[in-house]
Amino acid sequence: MSTYRSKHSLLKFYYVLFIAPGLLIYTAIIVFPVFFSVYFSFTEWAGVEKARFVGLDNYKRMFEDTVFLHSLRNNIIIVLVSVLGQIPLGLILAYVVYRKIVRFGQFFQAMIFFPVAISAIIVAILWNQIFAPGGLYTSIIRALTGDPLYVVQIFENKTFAILPILFVILWYYTGVYMVIFIANMRRIPESLVEVALIDGANEKQILFKVITPQMIPVIFTTLIFAISGSLKSFDLIFAMTGGGPAHYTEVIAIYMYYHTFKYYEYGFGSAVSVVIVVLSLVFILFLQKYFKKLEKKYA
Amino acid sequence: MSTNDNIIYVSGKLSRFFIYAILLLATLFYLFPLYVMLATSFKTLDEIRIGDMLAFPQFFTLDSWVNAWGKSCIGVECSGLKGYFLNSIKMALPAVLISTILGALNGFILTKWRFPGHTLIFGLMLFGCFIPFQSILIPMALVLGKLKLAGGITGLIIVHITYGIGFTTLFFRNYYINVPTEILNAAKMEGAGFFTIFLKIFVPASLPIFMVSIIWQFTNVWNDFLFGVSFAGGKNYPVTVALNNLINSTTSGKEYNVDMAAAIISAAPTLLVYVLAGKYFVRGLLAGSVKK
Fold it and tell me: What CATH number does domain B82-287 carry, 1.10.260.40, 1.10.3720.10, 3.40.190.10, 3.30.450.20?
């Protein structure tokens, strides 16, 4: 009995011993800081002196700043492009590979997926050379418009400066969704597709009537990826344009970075980060509600 | 009837043609920037200035590769990427190994040695996978500052380990949950302890998921930019940050060929991993998204 007991408590000791370090650093560096951020967001603080409580001032200042509002607008456009571009494109491409509609499906898959393995900084460099003044984009527009003097101007337009970035975002991430969808399509019982084929359904009908309803939970997961990913997007745009020119391509994460690490406004930066988290949560909760309904409809 | 069939056949053929055309365009669209990058890195500056971006290099040269690796200027320092490349290795190896081992232990405990509150702990770890980096940036900077680790590689290693634990725990937990508990009980009956069971039974049974975890972590740690630019400084920057600084360096004129060579050098490790072990790479990506 006593040996059993001591052995038992020894085991307990082991798991405390092994889970403790992971958990401790984890709480100290991730969980705890999140709550800290919320507190800082109500203060004015440069990191050295004592934080001064300022109530909602940071938030007020943020929503009165046109740079912030334009960044927010850019973020929302990126969310839309991810949700309405990457995910449907990924779904259709996945279907083409899954149903073996074309040969060399594996090759196409590998091609569209490979950018995922490279850093956003490299992707930015890759595309910047194409959007550079003497770059490929200029040559294409020159050829299309027949204007040999055209030089790239799109970045000088406040409304459209974000367009090239959207294009690159589509290039960079569509493969991720495609691969996720392919893997999940392969889990659908083949008999479902076979029955539909016997009933005379064409590929379009199979995709929309048979496959897509089965994919609803996965689509929900990819939507969460797309939304939270879009709201925190930083690296790619930071390396492509740094948010410029004149903040035209800035997004909230870059806005936060500048205010925090360039102007040392820790309180204000925290408030911006809180907005990023809250926005993600609101989007996700909203989606969850909508998808519960969808799942009921198709279940 | 037969004409009808013919129409369907033809329209099927036509739409297939369209699909091929679109996919080929897509492939070009993907290969193109890569080709330009590679071609530019082998050209001389003169050729780049006067020539066509798409043209094949005429005077094939490796100079820009040599410069990118050991000579070009990043800030005021003119010794190329090599030191920073080494930083990334020094950062990635411990970060990947430690976060994977901790993830394996966590997964093992969370599925087979459960204790009160284990779901809460797992929930907290999942929370860490989805939380935007930005919300922990400032407090993390303060913690690292307090620990006197700000600006150094050790600090970056700790940050990557912590941020990675959520993912590695998820991988191993989802894997170990399918290992039958009977195996564990049988081993316990024979008197095997925690370590023996973990090392002799669970580790050998989970080599594929070790691969997944290592590859996932390596790709993420190597490609990270935000943590590097926020928490490291000067000579301790990882290669991604150094690369960005090299490109934006104003000390010399714009040297596209060096920029491109530097970008390829920085991308080489993860591209190699993708080519050699793409299968595991995809599995890591799926771990969070495949319905269990």
Answer: 1.10.3720.10
Residue B165 reports pLDDT greater than 50 = yes
Q: Residue range B25-30: average pLDDT?
A: 83
CA distance B122 to B110: 8
- Asked if B159 has any chain A CB less than 8 Å from its own CB, the reply is yes
Annotate A151-170 with b (16+ C-beta within 10 A) or e (fewer).
ebeebeeeeebbebbbbbbe
Distance from CA of B130 to the nearest CA of A (A): 7
Q: Which residues make beta-bridge pairs with B151?
A: B232
Judge contact between A281 and A34, C-beta under 8 A.
Answer: no
Shared domain for A234 and A270, answered yes or no, is yes
When CB atoms are compared, the residue of B16, B256, B281 closest to A129 is: B256
ipTM score here?
A: 0.77
How many domains does chain A contain in total?
2
Closest CA to B288 of A279, A183, A70: A183
Most confident range, picked from A56-70, A156-170, A185-199, A242-256? A56-70
The residue range of the domain holding A11 is 1-40
User: Is A46 among the domain residues?
Assistant: no
> Rounded to an integer, what distance in angstroms lies between the CA atom of residue B23 and that of residue A109?
10
Measure CA B227 to chain center: 14
Q: Indicate if A100 and A14 belong to the same structural domain.
A: no
The residue type found at B240 is T
Nearest-neighbour CA in chain A from B247: distance (Å):
8
| Residue type (1 letter), B282 | V
Residue A50 lies in a domain: no
